[in-house]
């Protein structure tokens, strides 16, 4: 039974708020796209990162080797990053192609056996109809279709992605996951241990993403405090672990993407912490972000720290 088909049959049993939520889900093009083949993203949020990257292109450089994704569960953003770095998007598509090719190969093998008068390996050909003078063309239908070679496995991507969340993240190719509280004192050391120390990278990240949001209590002051605390902790993490634009050798290199909520305190935070330390700070409300939500993203490029 399809998702859509269950709505009318269930709706009369649900409270109005749940009906409204369901109805919004059914109408939401991003929810439908998320579920569609082949992307199959785990979260609707994945499209926010896709839209941010389409605009600012921070994941589209080959020199982007290390990305940290904070507040990553269920893993939509990590899937997008892994795809950009040659891991999952190609792996998912690659896997689909492998499955398709395998099915086709089986089908062709079946037809091949059929065309030579065999239903299966155990059945002998009908020798009564054979004549020694008849020349049989040895056409290999698998070779004709280019399916005689071993199917190559999905490609291996470049670099490292570290994904952190309080919640478990199901495995994603190319992504190292950590289930822990990013705000805990030991988080920094755990994440640092997963950052590769390749020559020239100083063991730092090229891009740090944070889609973290605490649980809303309903108390506006407490909620904005919690959001600012998260932004401050991410900024301090960036101070220790983000590669500078100079080290990367690109003016826009060293990127921090930071979710926050609209509030005068957020504006202060941006002016005090972000603006002086990055070449550019853009406020973005990506189209995939629901109009009614107060969330927005700062896309900060060109890390050139002046405060320590
Ligand atoms: C909006 S969701 C992230 C969705 C994710 N970007 C995706 O595409 O799948 C926010 C996440 O932040 C996580 N989070 C909130 N506070 C956290 C903390 N202190 N440490 C780690 N994760 C946290 C939540 O558990 C939640 O999974």
TrEMBL record:
Gene Ontology CC terms, in alphabetical order: mitochondrion
Residues of the Ribosomal RNA methyltransferase FtsJ domain: 41-87, 157-302
Stored InterPro entries: RNA_methyltr_RlmE, RNA_MeTrfase_FtsJ_dom, rRNA-MeTfrase_E, SAM-dependent_MTases_sf
Any one GO molecular function term: rRNA (uridine-2'-O-)-methyltransferase activity
Segment forming the signal sequence: none
Keywords from the UniProt entry: Methyltransferase, rRNA processing, S-adenosyl-L-methionine, Transferase
Ranges where the record places region Disordered: 106-134
Keyword Methyltransferase: yes
Catalytic machinery residues: 259
SUPFAM superfamilies per record: S-adenosyl-L-methionine-dependent methyltransferases (SSF53335)
PANTHER family listed in its UniProt record: RIBOSOMAL RNA METHYLTRANSFERASE, RRNA METHYLTRANSFERASE 2, MITOCHONDRIAL
HAMAP family: RNA_methyltr_E (MF_01547)
Family according to the record: Belongs to the class I-like SAM-binding methyltransferase superfamily. RNA methyltransferase RlmE family.
Protein name, as recorded: rRNA methyltransferase 2, mitochondrial
Naturally occurring in which organism (per UniProt): Grifola frondosa
Gene name of this polypeptide: rlmE
